[in-house]
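Model it.
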Amino acid sequence: MDTLIMVAQLLLGLSILVGLHELGHLLAAKMFGMRVEKFSIGFPPKIIGFQWKETEYSIGAIPLGGFVKISGMVDESLDAEQMSAEPQPWEFRSKPAWQRLIVMLGGIFVNVITGIIIFVFLVYSKGETYFSRDQVIEHGIVAYDIGQQIGLQDGDKILDINGVPYESLNDLSGGNALLSSDGYYTIERDGERMKITIPRGFINSFSNEENMSNFISIRFPFTISEVNPKGTAVKAGIQKGDKIVAVNDQPIEYFNELQSALGEYKGETIELTLVRDQQEIITSLDVMEDGTIGIAAENLIEPVRKKYTFAQSIPLGAERAFSVVIINARAMGKMFTGEVSTKNVSGPIGMAKIYGSTWDWLKFWSITGLISMILAFMNLLPIPALDGGHVMFLLYEMVSGRSPSDRFLENAQKIGMVLLLAIMVFAIGNDILKLFTGS
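Modeled.
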């Protein structure tokens, strides 16, 4: 069932984005009087379709893309017979270069607008919830395995990233931090300031959602929110709302301190000091072999919550949408230098896992907005067979006054298709490898 939910979300998200992308091409083409022969969401074989006026609309069986077939355009169909005939007034090749350029940018433009709209409505509907820099400095962090690998420790107070103050805890693991050159965190530890270097290629440590949660979190004071009836805490009379203040006379303020203390006494009997209704209680109990006692903790730090008007959401949403493009462009550039591993390239399986196995509409639209901006960026790359390849040749024609020959465009299209197929095979191979290695 989990797999079905992941696949369903991926197919819905891609169908929306591909349909809108191809619709952008179709509307631009029809605006300039070009004949659009086919509009398809998904690749052949065709599952279902209908004819309306000059255009056949269909859904294909391979839901990893889509296409529009515009008369007189060198595209994936490589229709040499049509291209060898005399150009007709309604054909793509008969129109001025600036009109053809707008048609090729139509899909990218629609994906950008879609991404911005999604991010604007997400900002407006849910606002922001985060732990602020001031809260991180007040309470310090918990450093997990990935954080410890670069030298962070429990209780460190992170003051800035690359000398610049940040806004929220999320910024500490964001693209601007992990993709920076010669990056560092300035921290305060036991009253002393020091720098923790962000290693070259550190972003490769965050290859999946599990690793993201294995970096750092904020330390938090706590009370007990739940007592497991199968744990040892219930036998010792511990109740919901109790506050643990000491383990074997060792003071406890933060939940990670309790976890560390219990880890030292696995399988042993300890003495807990609790506060209940402003009364101090001392009780003995056994620590289970896994270092727990069967309780859940309630974080007593209230996160910052911000709501925005619709007018405020527009610039914020647009900024977040374009920041996705900037971060992906920087990551791609660092792939060429070897700083970012190509193992981070994901195919459809990886994308489905990002959506997750539970249907959460807020998460769905967040990821769909993210993918919309990435699709726009990827389609703008100057690779033949992508929109960006067509744009590159059209700009050459507009600047030089000479259009590349149909034969050249056909060969470029073939090369581009082979390149895209190779990238797809590589991405799917990465997905399969991650399934077996768990990385």
